[in-house]
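Support case: zinc ion complex. Customer-provided input:
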Amino acid sequence: MTECLFCKIVTGEIPAAQVMESDRTLAFRDINPQAPTHVLVIPKDHYPDFASLAGAADGLLTEVAGQAHAVAQAEGIAASGYRVVFNTGPAAGQTVFHAHAHVLGGRAMTWPPG
Ligand code: AMP
Ligand code: ZN
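Agent response - structure generated as follows:
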């Protein structure tokens, strides 16, 4: 997906503040953070949204979830609490159509989300 922003981050064509990497996943800081910690965790391969990633059925979603928790631990927010969000589809506010988990923490989170 040559026109995909996050695919370009995977290849290094667009720079990002990387915080963690595995063979199949990448974590980097959101460019417009909504909390003291706001990190995005993505599969390196292109899946347009959560639904397609969930359907991959090869453990990739579990790896993304595992890296989200590892990021929370590394950022020191695992004990206090954090939120993992997949905005999925236009009504949920998805703007980048390469599946990504938002890892948010470092402040009290409100519920319900907007
Ligand atoms: P979503 O609206 O759930 O699709 O989330 C997309 C996220 O990507 C937003 O929180 C943006 O701030 C973030 N974003 C957009 N461009 C970049 C970039 N170049 N580097 C890091 N994060 C980005
Ligand atoms: Zn992509």
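The radius of gyration is 13 Å.

Case will auto-close in a few days if no follow-up is received.
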